[in-house]
Amino acid sequence: MNFKYYIDERPAKNGEMIILSLQHVFAMFGSTVLVPILIGIDVSVALFTAGMGTLLYSLATKAKVPVFIGSSFAYIGILSLLVAEYGQNYVSLAVMSVGLIYILLSFLIRAVGTSWLDYILPPVVMGPVIIVIGLSLASTAISSSGLGIDAFDQTAAFISLSTLLVTAIAMMKGNNFSKSIPILIGIAYGYIVSLIFGLVDLAAFSGLSLISVPKFYNPFIAGEFEFSFGVVAAIIPLVFVTVAEHIGDHTVSSTITGKNFLKDPGLDKTLLGDGLATLFAGLVGGPVNTTYAENTGVIILTRVASVAVIRLAAVFAMIIAFLSPINTFINSIPAPVMGGISIALFGLIAQNGVKLLVAGKVDFNHPRNMMIIAVILIIGLGGALITFTIATVKFEFTTMSLAALVGIFFHLVLPEKEASLTKK
Fold first, then answer.
1. 395-401: long-range contacts at Cβ-Cβ below 8 A with a sequence spacing of 24 or more?
2. Nearest to 217 by CA among 209, 228, 225
């Protein structure tokens, strides 16, 4: 892929830099604020921790990886249960535990190295896993777009599909600048059309104050910290799930940019960045953080992989956490608009899984490769679930993480002597 701005480059013009950064903010906003809404914690805190988490991640990875950090969906169930039944202090304990485990894993990987990754995660495994990462988000994009089989909405469908079309035209037919901001152009169009159809809640803008301080919460300062082994034990299985997602997301970014981020700066540093971001979130009352596929899609669509652009987007997210009008404006963007954008973003991620399979010269006619790819795709997209209990600790593996684990297992146990993984 030819990039307009590569990882270590930055736009010379401040105006362009700001617009490109805001594009990332718009892309991540919906998912980042949805998580705290579902859990029952402060939205502005989640925005602030997403921004600060991205900066901490950039620091840990020496600004070598174009990644935006946002609220993780994997922990919604357990965190919402904790906040409802036990209070914010146990949520903070759970979030901090995830961050600390990530940090400990990063030190372990630094000690033992990462050469094992090349063996257990070849293109025949990671290609379909990346496809699953993109396609597993398809239902979210379709439902937001009003295109669901059981929930078709003619107005929403028109807005989402026309927004998608305008975004595609801006990317393909615009000038050099408009090709860099197709998402903003699409959102602007979709927002105007939504206003015409009366889908924007203008009442939300009345009586707003300019500044609104997020409701930060630290259990130590509040004097409410209480350790619970049960909470930590319940969160551990999910950590292994999100580590698999972490590796998958960074493999996607590596495929896009042509850099192997699992080797440079290294999986130890990317996990450390994720861990520091999540540990900070736990210390101020935010949710677990993770790398965001939406922003990876932005990089694919715009051909702008600049870490400087993403770091400025992180700063904007932190500022927005304190600015009620901007926060409200972004939150007022109707779901069909973001649904249309998401169809492109998530589809492009899946496309890069196919690209990895092709670049890895995987032989699609060989039974061994066919079987590995098949089981990953069906388990990853079929809603599979495996649960078991060891010493009163319940382990649960679903969809993406389960698909990755089964794919790795098949790769390790199916005989290699009778099958070359790649064409010679």
1. 395/237, 396/237, 396/238, 396/241, 397/237, 397/241, 398/241, 399/132, 399/136, 400/129, 400/132, 400/133, 400/136, 400/241, 400/244, 400/245, 400/248, 401/240, 401/241, 401/242, 401/244, 401/245
2. 225
Residue carrying structure tokens 């025949």: 124
For CA atoms 224, 226, 230, 235, the dihedral sign is positive
Beta bridge partners of 211: 323
State the helix-helix crossing angle for 154-173 and 335-359, rounded to 10 degrees: 50
The structure tokens 């174009």 sit at 66
Residue 257, C-beta contacts closer than 8 angstroms, at least 6 positions apart: 1, 3, 6, 7, 66, 299, 305
Please tell me the total number of residues recorded for the chain in this structure. 424
| DSSP 3-state of 119 | helix
Q: How many CB atoms lie within 10 A of CB 151?
A: 10
CA 14, CA 257: separation in Å to the nearest integer? Answer: 24
- Asked whether the beta carbons of 284 and 44 are under 8 A apart, the reply is no
Average pLDDT over residues 418-424: 45
DSSP 65: S
Q: Compute the distance between CA of residue 174 and CA of residue 179 in angstroms, rounded to an integer.
A: 6
CA separation, residue 387 to residues 64, 339, 380, 393, 402 (Å): 37, 32, 16, 11, 11
Cβ neighbourhood burial of 106 (10 Å; 0-12, 13-18, 19+): buried
- Tell me the H-state helices in 65-144: 76-85, 88-112, 115-120, 123-135, 138-144
Task: Please report where in the chains the tokens 């777009």 appear, as a residue.
Answer: 145
Q: Cis peptide before 325, with omega less than 30 degrees from 0? A: no
Q: Is 161 exposed, middle or buried (0-12, 13-18, 19+ CB in 10 A)?
A: middle
Using one digit for the tens of pLDDT, what is the confidence trace for 332-359? 889 899 889 889 888 887 887 898 898 7
Q: pLDDT by residue (tens digit) across 350-389?
A: 887 898 898 788 999 999 999 999 999 999 899 888 877 7
